[in-house]
Amino acid sequence: MDHFNYKDGQLHAEDVPLSRIAAEVGTPVYVYSAATLTRHFGLFRQALDWTDHLVCFAVKANSNLAVLKLMADQGAGMDVVSGGEYARAKAAGVPGERIVFSGVGKTVSEMRQAIEGGIRQFNIESEPEMRALSALAVSMGAEVPVAIRVNPDVDAKTHEKIATGKSENKFGIPIAKSRQVYAEAAALPGLKVVGIDVHIGSQLTDLDPYRAAYAKVADLTRALRADGHDITRLDLGGGLGIPYRRDNNAPPLPIEYGQVIRDAVGDLGCEIEIEPGRNIVGNAGVLLSSVIYVKEGEGRDFLIVDAAMNDLLRPAMYGAHHDIVPVREAALGAELRPFDVVGPVCESGDTFQKGTQLPSVAADDLIAFRSAGAYGAVMASEYNSRPLVPEVLVSGDHFAVIRARPTFEEMLSRDTIPEWL
Ligand SMILES: *Cc1c(COP(=O)(O)O)cnc(C)c1O
């Protein structure tokens, strides 16, 4: 459930009409609902309330400081995958002991930054990384908590670009080899083995892959304990999917996911960490855009809008679907007409949807791309020298710009022409 609804014939974010935001901030613009974020975070906490747990928001899904602060204020931990994300989590007020560091290519300087600033645990993804972290920790006189990310070789049944738990993926250590790697980790100075980490992919719409992966994690926990390791923490990753189409079957709920976790690992007495990103923020955001032109083509009509692939990359990158809705509510029984909805960028891939059925729309009308809160603004670029898309946070009847649209001056000032040119 989210807080984007039609009231008085107009799509609102909570109690704010989107047309008001468009008028004051301009378009394109991302709009997030604080109430939806809070609600979704609460559902994950509730799903794990049977045990000691920490819900670590996956920062890569949406790293705006205001969004992170909202999460942090409710007690969220953070899952970060870069030094930049670590810096954002800290700037949003998250203490180091609530930050876990994931990612296949952590550099020594990123690891140093996290050790200096405080860290809950590193999720180690390879043996070379483990050795580098050990050497660094020793040189800093530190002992750092680590979990090892195991690759359970489970098919997450999701888009191939966001599946991470098959043996051919670059992530984690093959589960069959993990006892040997844990033995080496335990012997290395500067590392304190605390747990096991797994993350099999994103936008999972079926719980069976989780069941399969977590059963393997449970077996491994027992085996590692028998080997003498003190496994007290299980980081079970993120990935629970969201309904991108409002007209089809909804993916499982957090509470059902929590039950899968309880069934698989509930008897092990471990503290549970999860790392949801998309499920918390995806449906808490829309991308608001204006129609520039309605262009009648041969056999098809184009809706040329002022949002483009540089603002919302998912359709171009994954062929992803976002429901597109008019901000002015269509009259009941209004006639629908198919449009190809495209942006102004000079690429044919800058197509959001083909043959979308929309009520009659005209230039300057507002539309909204639903489910755009996750992997939206964070993937935006300034391709075609289009200013980085701004972001707005709504709470009740007020809103704030949480990232301003840069001016051309600001954009240009980031480049330098060398004096010898
Ligand atoms: C991307 C990622 C997540 C979050 O995935 P969602 O599908 O957004 O929930 C969690 N953990 C790790 C290690 C990730 O790479």
TrEMBL record:
Q: What does this protein do?
A: Specifically catalyzes the decarboxylation of meso-diaminopimelate (meso-DAP) to L-lysine.
Reactions listed under catalytic activity? meso-2,6-diaminopimelate + H(+) = L-lysine + CO2
| Pathway the protein takes part in | Amino-acid biosynthesis; L-lysine biosynthesis via DAP pathway; L-lysine from DL-2,6-diaminopimelate: step 1/1
Which species does the entry assign this protein to? Paracoccus homiensis
Q: Which residues form the Orn/DAP/Arg decarboxylase 2 N-terminal domain?
A: 36-281
Q: What is this protein called?
A: Diaminopimelate decarboxylase
Q: Does the keyword Amino-acid biosynthesis apply?
A: yes
Q: Which UniProt keywords apply?
A: Amino-acid biosynthesis, Decarboxylase, Lyase, Lysine biosynthesis, Pyridoxal phosphate
